[in-house]
Design goal:
Largest sheet of chain B: 2 strands, antiparallel
CATH architecture of the domain at 14-68 in chain A: Roll
CATH class of chain B: Mainly Alpha
Largest sheet of chain A: 3 strands, antiparallel
Distance between the termini of chain B: 53 Å
Order of helices and strands of chain B: HHHHHHHHEEH
Shape of chain B: globular
Strand order of the largest sheet of chain A: 2-1-3
Helix content of chain A: 10-25%
Oligomer: heterodimer
CATH topology of the domain at 14-68 in chain A: Ubiquitin-like (UB roll)
Number of strands of chain A: 3
CATH class of the domain at 14-68 in chain A: Alpha Beta
Helix content of chain B: 55-70%
CATH superfamily of chain B: Ferritin, core subunit, four-helix bundle
Structural class of chain A: alpha+beta
Number of strands of chain B: 2
Strand content of chain A: 25-35%
């Protein structure tokens, strides 16, 4: 019997990317980063984020492509060093 | 504002509303079981979580609708514990199990779209508990449909023809859920905002749009429900199979160890 081959499309797309998930419980709270999610497109990112981070009754939830996030400081550092 | 009373409705309209809500609740029950059975095919952890989430919300819709049907004199426990396949009024679309992941997404999309389009006819129902329940169903169905939309985009992007083929194959039984009646007593009496024929048109338009995006060139065909033994009171023809009924039938916790 030939084993079933699971390709990238079946796993959720050829161009899987990460999204950062932000949410708040009430309108008074600031949007806070609650985690990240892997998805090939904006639609699946929204659906997956909603169900993966469903531990609270969120008033608002947003997803942002990780690629769109511009780092101001260095990773884990207070400042950046100009790359030579 | 005067409180809405079901007793104000004529017996015909009251019975029609009860049947439509039961058909919706039973279809949600079978769909929830589809999700539960197929959850292991969520091919990544977030996909697994999404399918499981859609299962639980679908069960929640069923239970909330069963509770509401108590106002019609229906017993919640009796609704949960029906003993014969002929007592289940779920849509024909969900009778046959998914043959592939593409078929699963196509069937789930058609079922979710049909159910939400149909339920939206009660979104401004004068009975606030019902309109509130329908609004909640709509908010949760939004994410179910987003999930389908995301997968449709992947199938289109990868030029996968199997999704379009499955959509085409399942469409006739999906559209048959709306029936083909020209008149709608529930709409005429103000219980349903739009007649079912208009909701049917809206459903066809949504599916046609999805078919176009899936690069499906063939026209979607519907079947003549009058010829298939379709019953308005159950929104289906025939009974679900014994096998499907054994899957969706409520199992008491004690039964797991029998």
């Amino acid at each position: 019997m030939t084993p079933k081959v699971i390709d990238r499309a079946e796993l959720g797309g050829n161009k899987t990317k990460f999204y950062e998930v932000f949410a708040r419980i009430s309108s008074e709270d600031a949007l806070a980063h609650i985690g990240s999610i892997e998805a090939p497109n904006d639609e699946l990112a929204q659906a997956r984020a909603w169900y993966v981070y469903d531990e609270r009754r969120w008033k608002e939830m947003c997803v942002v492509p990780t690629d769109a996030v511009i780092s101001v400081t260095g990773r884990g550092a207070r400042g950046k060093i100009k790359e030579i | 504002m005067a409180r809405f009373e079901l007793d104000q409705l004529s017996p015909e309209v009251r019975e029609g509303l009860k049947c439509d809500l039961l058909a919706l609740a039973d279809s949600k029950l079978v769909l929830a079981n589809w999700y539960t059975t197929c959850v292991h095919n969520g091919r990544s952890l977030p996909d697994f979580a999404a399918v499981l989430g859609m299962a639980t919300t679908s069960y929640g819709h069923t239970r909330a609708l069963y509770l509401y049907l108590g106002d019609f004199g229906m017993d919640y426990a009796a609704l949960e514990r029906r003993s014969k396949p002929g007592e289940l009024n779920s849509m024909n679309l969900l009778d046959s199990p998914p043959q592939s992941w593409e078929d699963f997404v196509a069937a789930v999309f058609l079922a979710e779209q049909a159910m939400w389009t149909f339920a939206s006819g009660f979104l401004n129902h004068p009975d606030r508990p019902l309109s509130g329940l329908i609004r909640k169903i709509g908010e949760e169905s939004y994410f179910h449909l987003k999930y389908c939309e995301g997968w449709r985009a992947i199938f289109a992007e990868t030029a996968n023809p199997r999704f379009g083929e499955a959509l085409q194959q399942r469409f006739p039984s999906a559209v048959s859920w709306f029936g083909s009646e020209k008149t709608d007593a529930l709409h005429d009496s103000g219980v349903r905002e739009l007649p079912v024929s208009k909701l049917r048109e809206a459903f066809i338009a949504e599916v046609s749009d999805a078919a176009e995006k899936a690069q499906l060139s063939t026209t979607l065909a519907s079947e003549d429900v009058a010829k298939s033994g379709w019953e308005l009171s159950r929104r289906r023809s025939g009974d679900v199979s014994d096998k499907l009924f054994s899957i969706v039938q409520l199992k008491d916790a004690e039964a797991v160890h029998d």
